[in-house]
Amino acid sequence: MNSTFRSLTSTASSLFSRYSPPAFKPVTLYTTTRRGTSRRARRKKMGLPEPEQTPDYTNWSASQLLKRITDLETQLRNNRIVPVTDPSVTAALPPKKKQKKDRPFDASRYNTRHIALKFAYLGQRYNGFEHHTGNKTPLPTIEEELWKAFMKTRLIFPTRGAELKEGEIDWEGTDYSKCGRTDRGVSAFGQVIGIRVRSLQPMPKEQPVQEEEQGDKMQGIEGNAKEQGSKEDKKPESKPWDHIRDELPYIQLLNRVLPEDIRMLAWCPTPPTDFNARFNCRERRYRYFFTSPAFAPVPGDAGLLTTATGKTLREGYLDIEAMRDAAKRYEGLHDFRNFCKVDPAKQITNFERRIFKASIEEVDVSQAPAGFISHPAFAQSVGAKNQMGGQGDMSIPKIYTFDVNGSAFLWHQVRHLVAVLFLVGQGFEPPSIISDLLDMEKYPTRPKYEMATDAPLVLWDCIFPDHEDIDQSREDAMEWVYVGETGGRETNKRPEMDGGDSKFGKGGIMDSIWEVWHKRKIDEILAGSLMDIVAAQGKRSPADVKLAPVAERSPRLFDGGDWPRPVGTYVPIARKQRMEPVEVVNARHLERKGPYKPKFMRKEDGDE
Question: What is the pTM of this model?
Answer without folding.
Answer: 0.73
